[in-house]
Design a protein that fits this description.
Length: 480
Amino acid sequence: MTLMIGFPSRFAACASALALVLTTPALAEDLVIENVTLIDGTGQPNQTDMSVGVEDGRITFVTPTAVAPEVPGRHIDGSGRYLIPGLMDVHIHLKGARGGDGRRMVGVDRTNPQATPPPPAQVAADAATAHEAGLEALASYLYSGVTTVFDAGNVPEHILGLRAEERAGEILSPRIFATGNLVTYPGSHGSGMAIEIDDWSEDKPALLEYLKEQKPDIVKLTLDEHGWGTRPLISLLPLDLMQDIILEVNRHGIRTTAHTSSELRATEAIFAGVDSLAHPVIQGPITEEFAKLMGAKKTPMATTLTIGEGYSRLVEHPEFLDQPLYQASYSAEEIDKLKTETLPAWKERGWTWWMKLMTPVAQENMRMIDAAGGVIAIATDQTLGPAVHREMELLQAAGVPAARIVTIATLNGAKHLGKADELGSIEPGKLADMVLLSADPTVDINNAKQIVWVMKGGELIDEDKLPLAGGNFPLRREQR
């Protein structure tokens, strides 16, 4: 069964080559951060009284301040502050493509081809609403210190349009990497938003068309016999077909990731050649053998703990929405709806309480894999920036040291994306994506919320210009 994709040509034209994926903002300035405590993302111990030079959006030197070269440009005093790489979320689903009532706001609903198209005026209004919601969500990531995201499945017209705008420097946004549509077997997990392949010779052209039109940064496959809710059994992507897809995608220089939720399927995906895993094992405790396999293979695994834990958290502790990051990232109307409508609905769902039981299992699985030398990377499977900080809190609660979590949220994220040569650590030659903090995150990962400023590609993000859904939220940082 083949789902052919047709997109406006501007997506193909605007989807940039690798060199443009990692472009630096036009407003980047040459500067030096001095006297700062450096936490470089590589796992090294904190380095005090350091200087970091930035020129043309890239890091030019990292050295003790006492021996730093004399260079022109702006000098920022980092005394008493902590400099970390920009945080990453390597599994999001950016909001905006669907309205609050679940109605699709952009693109053609291919799951319902018989539906009567809305009038042109409605199409234009919906697209504008979706775009605004997307910009607000992207602003929430920057506000939370996140400078890179990977959207692991979305309405292509929505996320690919925003990706094109980000790479052209037209919007305030973290770096966007995206998959667009998923790729899987008919009737399998996520097939409603996927390129469906069940016969390689017949359906390979659809895959090639998808690669050409959407230019995914990473192709996401699904290998899971369970659906949502009560976890009904569904069709499963055959492994020989999965291998064919992976080989073809890799032949085009594109990485793959796989949705799995059990040790068995994760193991199968690894040996099928997948480049990363989109979720932890959540169906049950992992074996020591699997932890050792992850340590040996170094296949990056996204953490995505908050997506399950978030249901019971809202029901039992809705006061988290009163925290500053959430107040800035949600509108007052959205927060009210979450507390008055979503909360009682989730309270009655069996899924909410099953996920509450299984989240500690997934937490321990993540801790074991990290301890075995595996590569786990911060990811939330959510739609807004503050979730990154909850994800890190859950790892710390599982016993992962805070200093390790900094690396998991930065360099490991870059490894997950295949971009560790450009992103993820504060080293000469890399892009200058950094966050300055007023407290030490290696003592308590909650200190990663104590943000002074955020830098992307050498540009200090001006909070005054962030279109946060919370409106004119009081600035809490030094901007000038």
